Amino acid sequence: MVDVFRALDDETRRVVLDELSVRDGQTLFEICSMLTMRHGLSLTRQAISQHLGVLESAGLVVTERRGRSKFHYFNPEPLAQITGRWPTKKRSEQ
Amino acid sequence: MKIALTSLFVDDQRAALAFYTGVLGFTKRHDIPLGDDFWLTVVSPESPDGPELLLEPSGHPAVKPYRDALVEDGIPLAQFAVEDIEAEHAKLTRKGVVFTQPPTHIGTAVVAVFDDTCGNLIQLIEMNRVENHAGVR
Q: Between chains, do B100 and A34 touch, taking CB under 8 Å as contact?
């Protein structure tokens, strides 16, 4: 189990979440081509797969099988831990 | 040297012929009995003398684990070029074809991936029109 803070401490993983929040439900192939073509990140498929594993372990990504393929979805729920710990209010309101 | 033929493994050759001709719109080129199977090829009507696609029986025991692993990760085994990917996506979806990736801009092109119902994922690609025009000599 990886905590949400460690899972977010990596630019590639943050970009994966950006892409999934634009269009949810992507295969590994699709995520790899997004990172390469849109973001110029030349990682191996294996490295991306490991990043997805970390996100999944933190609960930020969930996978679902549809037909014979596996799709990755963004699950923002664990992010509540951040605002739960440090509520987002302006300094002047304190 | 040129590429005259490439192949895809298919679960059932007759079902594959129906899909590749009836749904995708390719034309049958060869259908020659070969033991229990057939030498079965199709071509694009847009380039009848272009490369043939062999729809090859998938009986070899290595085929299933190989394809299962690729399909699980969404990896296509062939790429077909189209003029208008949005139109193809709409037309094929109406015919019941399932896409694992809808048309998606990837910079120099728009791509999409669909299930060929024969055990493979296929990528469609439309090169950017602006770039195509720029590339005309």
A: no
Indicate the CATH number of B5-127 among 3.10.180.10, 3.30.470.20, 3.50.50.60, 3.40.50.720.
3.10.180.10
The whole-angstrom separation of Cα A35 and Cα B31 is 42
Domain ranges across chain B: 5-127
Global ipTM: 0.84
CA dihedral B21, B7, B120, B68 (to 10 degrees): 150
Give the residue ranges of chain A where pLDDT is below 70.
Answer: 93-94
CA atoms within 13 A on the CB side of B66: 11
Q: Which of B72, B77, B105, B110 to mutate to test the interface with A (most CBs of A within 10 A)?
A: B72
Give the pLDDT score at B129. 64
Alpha-helical (H) ranges within B1-137 are 13-17, 63-72, 85-94, 129-135
